[in-house]
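in:
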């Protein structure tokens, strides 16, 4: 599938997950969140936390940079912490937390450390992957939680919006079932450490385990940090026979079962882009 025809799109969707404090306190379990109640000494007022928002689809490098900025630490501090902190990652991850730095809103205090914050992100991701729906769905498709996270990361990167996630997931499942290479530009972008909608023929020939144009199956690791919606889509894809998709314009992603139909949609997109080009300068 050639997916280099997707137009640029904003990736600013933010989560509204329950907040989790990272300071000393008593853990109270509520219906949907864990709340830390601080232990106060001698009437001292609790420190008002600052909030760090990690959007769905950010790569680990982006998360590290955001943590360093939020904690006012030298660049590279969070990345170094990730390499040495006791993160609860599956053996398949081989110490790489990509895919497990769960997108959410995290409170920060003066006592928050990069290691503790990253460990909390990983713990949250593990809890989401361990929910019954995700676990049962992944097992039904013969996937480990790590494979679910990997597939979800592709869905997060490729779907224009949440409404399309189930269909994108179905394309991935259908291609895997037919031993077809996924041919996802998002994995090429990850290999080249970039974000673009234009992929050249040369790009598709790079020697990388993330080159899903030449290599079959899922990439060796997640390519970003997916949210719960992408995880759910990975284990419960929308029924359909699609093998291709292209976003003709924002809000209009076309899914096709045949290459001939896909080529028509691609031609329409190219026509619209050529027409819009002169106006955009």
């Amino acid at each position: 599938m050639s997916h280099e025809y997707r137009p640029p799109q904003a990736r600013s969707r933010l989560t509204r997950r329950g907040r989790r404090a990272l300071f000393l306190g008593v853990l109270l379990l509520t219906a949907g969140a864990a709340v830390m109640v601080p232990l106060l000494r001698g009437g001292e007022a609790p420190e008002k936390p600052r909030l760090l928002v990690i959007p769905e689809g950010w790569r680990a490098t982006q998360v590290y940079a955001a943590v360093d900025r939020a904690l006012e630490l030298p660049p590279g501090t969070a990345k170094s912490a990730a390499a040495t902190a006791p993160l609860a990652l599956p053996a398949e991850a081989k110490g790489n937390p990509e895919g497990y730095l769960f997108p959410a809103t995290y409170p920060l205090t003066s006592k928050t450390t990069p290691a503790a914050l990253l460990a909390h992100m990983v713990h949250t991701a593990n809890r989401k992957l361990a929910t019954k729906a995700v676990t049962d769905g992944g097992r039904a498709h013969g996937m480990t939680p790590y494979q679910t996270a990997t597939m979800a990361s592709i869905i997060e990167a490729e779907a224009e919006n949440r409404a399309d996630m189930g269909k994108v997931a179905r394309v991935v499942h259908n291609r895997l079932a037919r031993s077809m290479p996924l041919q996802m530009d998002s994995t090429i972008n990850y290999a080249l450490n970039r974000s673009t909608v234009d992929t050249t023929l040369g790009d598709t020939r790079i020697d990388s385990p993330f080159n899903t144009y030449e290599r079959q199956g899922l990439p060796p690791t997640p390519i970003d940090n997916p949210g719960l919606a992408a995880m759910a889509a990975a284990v419960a894809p929308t029924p359909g026979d699609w093998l291709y998709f292209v976003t003709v314009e924002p809000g209009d992603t076309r899914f096709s079962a045949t290459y001939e139909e896909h080529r028509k949609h691609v031609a329409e997109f190219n026509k619209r882009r050529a027409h819009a080009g002169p106006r955009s300068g």
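note: Residues 25-36+46-129 form one domain.
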